[in-house]
Amino acid sequence: MKKAWSIVLSTALSVGLLAGCGSGGGTNNNTNGAADGGNANAGKPKSVTLKFFIGQPRFKQQYEGYINDFVAKEKAEKNVDIKVQLEMPNSDNAPQILKTRMASNDAPDIFSLHAVNEAPSFYKAGYLEDLTNQPLADKLLDSVKPSVTIDNKIVAVPMESLAWGFLYNKKIFADNGITPPTTLTEMKAIVEKLKAKKITPFLLSYQEAWIPQLFLPLSVGALVSTDHKDFIDKMNKDEGSFAEMKDMFNIIDLVNANGTDKAMEVNGDDGAAAFAAGKAAMWIQGPWFADTILKSKADFDFGVAPLPVNDNPDATRIDLSTSTALAVSPSSKNKEYALDFLNYVLDDKTSSAFYESLKFNPVAKSHTFETYPWVNDAMVYVKDGKSYQDPVMPQAVKDEVGKALQSYFVKQMSQDDVIKALDKAWKDFNKVNK
C-alpha cells in the first residue's frame, strides 16, 4: 500500500577558471587585478559533500534549482566545490528513515522535519544545531519565529507556515449555491445536495497513510479548542484515551461513505490531478498541494475552509501550523557550508522567489510576494478568532493513525480497534520519552 522512493542527486558546479589552468594564466580569479593572485579564494578549490534529506519529492525541481544556485554562490564566494547528495523520500517513509539515520550516527548535514511534531524530540536528543546566532534568525517574521523556537533557541528554518482545513472547488460550490459549512449537520446537507446533482462530494486518496492521518490533527485540534482542552495533557500523563475523541469518526465516516472510488490506489499526486479535474467537490487536504494542483490545471479555483467535526460551530476552526522546516545536524562534518545553505534559504535577494515558487506562505521580513487566494480564504476565519495552533502530538501517534485509518477504511479495524491502537502508541511514546 505504500511506495518508497528517493532521488539522489550528485552534482558539482565549477564557476570561472582555476588558477594556473586554461587561457589566462591564472589571472581570471584575481579580483583586484594583481598579477600575484591577490584573491583570497584563488587557487585549487576545496571539495566538500553536503547530504540533503528533504521529504518533499513533489518539489524536486524547485529544490534542485535553488541548491544549484547555492552551489554556484559558494564556488564564487568561497572557492569551494560542493558536491550535493539530495535524497527525497515520500512523506510516509521520511520520518522513520530519518530517525534511523540519526540513531545510527548517519545524520544528513541538512534535513527536513515537522516543526510541531518532530522538533521537540529531535531537540531533546541533541539532533538540532542552534541557529539563534545565525543571520537568518533576525529575518524571521515574529509571528512565525515561535514555531521553530525551543528553550529560546531557534532550531530550524520554517518552510511551510500553514492555515488549513479542507480544500473545496469554488466553481462547484458557486454553481450550486453552496458555502462552506460551520457544523457537521450543514456538511451532511451539502453532501446530499451534491449527490442530488450527481457530483461526488469528497476526493479520497488513501494510498499514502499520511493523508488519512490528516483527520487526526483536524479533529483533535477542534475538540481540544472547545470541549476537551486537557486531552493532550492527560495523554502525556497516561491518564486519557482517544475514546474522548470518538466524535472524529462522525466526519471520517461521512467522508468515507461519500467519496471517489479506489481510494487505496490513489496517492497524493493522483489526488491533486483528480481534484483539479473536478472529480469531487472537496478534499480533506492542505494547501501544501497547491503547486501540484495548479500544475494539473493552472486556472483551477479552490478555497480553504475549516472542517466541522460536530455540531458546535465554535469547534469549526482553521488549523495554524508550521510543518516542514529545515535543520542542520550538530554532527555535520561540513557545518560551515550547511549553515551557509540555511542562511541562503532566507537570503534577502533570492528567498522570496524561492518560497513563491513553492506556493508557500511568507515567513521572512524580505518576503514580498502577495499571499495566495486560498490563504486569504483561511485568514478570514483566523481574523474572526476561528483558529487553533496545530495540536502537539507524538509523531508515532500520527504514524499509527494513518495506518489504522487505512485499515478502518477497508473494514479491517473497528473504531474501538483504532482507539486502542492510538492509546497504545501514545503510551509507548511516553515510556521511551519520560
From TrEMBL:
It is found in: Cell envelope. Keywords: Signal, Transport. Residues 1-19 form the signal peptide. Pfam families: SBP_bac_1. The keyword Transport applies. Belongs to the bacterial solute-binding protein 1 family. This is Probable sugar-binding periplasmic protein. It comes from Paenibacillus sepulcri.
